[in-house]
């Protein structure tokens, strides 16, 4: 089996995935510096569930988010095991980390050592929108991401996307309950903190989760729900 078929066979719902291969040379920090390429998986989220969070986070969304994290982890672990068998050195990076797995520097900066969104823009899957979400061509921002780092060039790499393509649209900025974004457009020179305040986002998401679900988790997603990109178009197969 070739590598492409191997990856396709690991996807439980291929129509609900966008995958891309990125050259990330020079962009990774420790402990990932030895890798040059990234295989990125974007898993579409359920439209009915995402549409419902326009009113704020709810338990169905939390369950969906956890289910998709589990599915993505299974996909990357399965592909990683196949790479191991083929002697392809690799490092799977799961969708997210629990607070208990993160160190003090994370809580000071809300930054982890690896950004799935960075790998995704380098793979050509999408750009960074005005509230700092990855907006994919295929599914808009309604995705969760996972990545496998490799040293070898297994596929043709995607064309880098280096600036925001949201145009004049500011709906996510306007509807953000935390007012976390200032409307400035992203490009690869624009640090996150220049256009989006992660602390405001997290703190408001925690308040909303507590209010709507009686659980203090960083769950909101209104920015993803209101984005016109990726909303279901008549006749599309996925939902
Ligand atoms: C920490 C974290 C948070 C923090 C901070 C968010 C933030 N935007 O930084 C808090 C708790 C606030 C948060 C909230 C949410 N999060 Co969060 N979070 C993460 C996590 C674990 C790390 C992100 C991180 O390190 N950020 C640091 C900055 C520097 O990196 P970045 O924002 O990821 O990307 C920047 C750079 O990479 C740069 N960049 C992009 N391309 C390139 C290319 C080059 C060459 C360069 C130099 C730079 C560059 O631009 C980006 C924006 O500035 C990731 C998982 C992961 N490991 O990636 C999920 C992740 C970013 N979160 C995600 C989601 C869905 C959410 C929420 C919607 C929560 C929810 N489920 O309700 C909200 C929405 C927040 C928002 N509007 O961004 C998704 C994003 C999906 C998407 N479509 O973008 C991720 C990728 C999880 C996943 N596996 O899918 N999150």
UniProtKB/TrEMBL annotation:
Q: Which GO terms describe its molecular function?
A: iron-sulfur cluster binding; metal ion binding
Where does the record place the 4Fe-4S ferredoxin-type domain?
157-186
Q: Which residue spans adopt a coiled-coil conformation according to this UniProt entry?
A: none
Q: Which SUPFAM superfamilies match?
A: alpha-helical ferredoxin
Write down the InterPro entries for this protein, in alphabetical order: 4Fe4S_Fe-S-bd, 4Fe4S_Fe_S_CS
**PROSITE patterns recorded:** 4FE4S_FER_1, 4FE4S_FER_2
Nucleotide-binding among keywords:
no
Q: Where is the signal peptide?
A: none
Keyword annotations: Iron, Iron-sulfur, Metal-binding
Which top-level group of life is the source organism from? Bacteria
Instruction: State whether keyword Nucleus applies.
Output: no
Q: Where are the transmembrane segments?
A: none
Q: What is this protein called?
A: 4Fe-4S ferredoxin-type domain-containing protein
Question: What species was this sequence derived from?
Answer: Candidatus Raymondbacteria bacterium RIFOXYD12_FULL_49_13
């Amino acid at each position: 089996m070739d590598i492409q078929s191997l990856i396709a066979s690991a996807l439980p719902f291929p129509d609900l995935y966008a995958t891309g291969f990125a050259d990330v040379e020079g962009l990774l920090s420790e402990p990932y510096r030895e890798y040059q390429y990234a295989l990125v998986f974007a898993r579409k989220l359920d439209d009915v569930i995402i549409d419902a969070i326009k009113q704020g986070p709810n338990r169905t969304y939390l369950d969906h988010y956890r289910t998709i994290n589990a599915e993505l982890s299974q996909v990357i672990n399965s592909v990683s095991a196949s790479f191991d068998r083929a002697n392809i050195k690799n490092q799977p990076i799961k969708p997210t980390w629990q607070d208990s797995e993160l160190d003090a520097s994370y809580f000071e900066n809300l930054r982890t050592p690896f950004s799935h969104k960075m790998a995704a823009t380098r793979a050509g899957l999408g750009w960074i929108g005005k509230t700092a979400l990855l907006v994919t061509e295929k599914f808009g921002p309604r995705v969760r991401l996972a990545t496998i780092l490799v040293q070898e060039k297994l596929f043709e790499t995607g064309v880098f996307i280096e600036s925001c393509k949201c145009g004049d649209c500011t709906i996510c900025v306007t509807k953000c309950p935390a007012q976390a974004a200032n409307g400035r457009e992203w490009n690869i020179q624009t640090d996150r903190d220049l256009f989006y305040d992660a602390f405001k986002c997290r703190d408001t998401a925690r308040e909303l989760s507590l209010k709507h679900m009686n659980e203090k988790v960083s769950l909101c997603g209104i920015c993803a729900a209101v984005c016109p990109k990726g909303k279901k178009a008549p006749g599309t197969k996925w939902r």
